[in-house]
Inverse folding.
């Protein structure tokens, strides 16, 4: 959408701090628009210190409308186009929402609060996910949603950034106040020194492996407390996620593990024989209103608070930041200019 112009090329250098999903998209769009961009990341290429490493990677603006403000859907739907443009191999196989009979009322509520879905009967469910034949009497199919695998897509975005002329420096801890030019601070929770209202919301996940189940898309199971889901990762691996706990310690509690594994078993009993590959958790960076924010103070721009929507929102937030820098466009819903 934003073309590089001779005018913008070679203007002030841009430093992006943090190569998680927010910073990776900022760096990529700025580099493609012709800016000289350096992306600083304090951890190694493995990115295990980022929240993004632990994420589900669902691109689900319609499902998320159940519990989010309309701005999340607006930016999320725009992001889907950017994912398609920049990472054309992104699977857009849709999402499936199912519930057991006892959670019927919550299922109906979910259907009422969201759009972009088609109701499926039992036959419709097994048509799109044959492995679930006979397991659910109905489902909601959100055909236009997608998902990415964070641990594959982050290196892909970094590589695209480098191909666009960007310079990425791992093991490089940067201080926004010590850098010249335009600084885009995407440090996630580490930005609390300048944004003290940020908090971490723990999300726990488990990866399991089995050859007994095949799924083509994320399957969400209606659950009274959390949206629990199973995401196929390929090679017989599945991510089970995710809890949402107001706590900043990491690790996975026994209770959460029971609930995540129970959800997988409820989706398909063959998960009982699956091998557990990994338990883990990440802290979602969130502001008190759980909404993302682009905070502008002269040439320092902080992009943060992506909460549980980092993969969904990062492309659109990068596009908004670029539009502000190049053309002074302000999106009042997410931008704060000091
Ligand atoms: C279990 C779980 C499941 C999730 N599922 C989804 C999902 O399905 N879909 C979705 O859209 N979102 C999901 N999320 C949310 C998503 O992961 C977050 O919104 C997103 O990762 C936040 O990205 P970020 O780039 O802001 O932060 P981070 O990923 O934490 O990146 C910040 C980076 O900054 C680096 N850094 C910090 N300080 C410095 C410094 N001084 N110098 C250099 N580098 C620095 C850090 O090392 C880190 O790599 C999930 C989160 C969790 C925990």
């Amino acid at each position: 959408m934003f073309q590089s112009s001779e005018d913008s090329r070679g203007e002030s250098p841009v430093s992006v701090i943090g190569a998680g999903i927010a910073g990776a998209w900022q760096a990529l769009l700025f580099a493609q628009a012709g800016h000289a961009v350096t992306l600083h990341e304090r951890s190694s290429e493995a990115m295990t210190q980022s929240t993004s490493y632990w994420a589900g990677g669902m691109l689900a603006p319609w499902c998320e409308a159940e519990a989010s403000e309309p701005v999340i859907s607006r930016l999320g739907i725009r992001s889907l186009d950017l994912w398609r443009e920049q990472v054309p191999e992104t699977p857009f196989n849709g999402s499936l929402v199912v519930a057991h009979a006892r959670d019927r009322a919550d299922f109906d509520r979910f259907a009422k609060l969201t759009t972009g879905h088609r109701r499926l009967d039992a036959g419709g469910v097994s048509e799109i996910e044959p492995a679930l034949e006979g397991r659910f009497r109905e489902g909601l199919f959100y055909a236009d949603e997608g998902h990415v695998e964070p641990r594959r897509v982050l290196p892909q975005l970094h590589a695209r950034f480098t191909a666009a002329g960007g310079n990425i420096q791992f093991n490089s801890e940067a201080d926004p106040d010590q850098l010249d030019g335009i600084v885009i601070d995407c440090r996630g929770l580490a930005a609390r020194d300048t944004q003290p209202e940020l908090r971490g919301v723990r999300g726990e996940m488990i990866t399991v492996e089995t050859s007994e189940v095949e799924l083509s898309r994320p399957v969400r199971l209606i659950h009274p407390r959390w949206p629990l889901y199973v995401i196929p990762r390929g090679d017989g691996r599945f991510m089970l996620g995710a809890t949402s706990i107001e706590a900043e310690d990491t690790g996975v509690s026994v209770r959460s593990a029971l609930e995540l594994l129970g959800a997988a078993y409820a989706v398909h009993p063959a998960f009982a024989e699956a091998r557990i590959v990994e338990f883990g958790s990440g802290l979602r960076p969130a502001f008190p209103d759980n909404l993302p924010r682009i905070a502008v103070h002269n040439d320092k721009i902080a992009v943060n608070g992506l909460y549980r929507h980092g993969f969904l929102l990062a492309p659109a937030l990068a596009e908004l930041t670029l539009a502000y820098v190049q053309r002074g466009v302000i999106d009042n819903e997410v931008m704060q200019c000091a």
About this structure: Residues 310-327 form the longest helix (18 residues). Confidence is low (pLDDT under 50) at residues 1-10. DSSP finds eight helices and 17 strands in the chain.
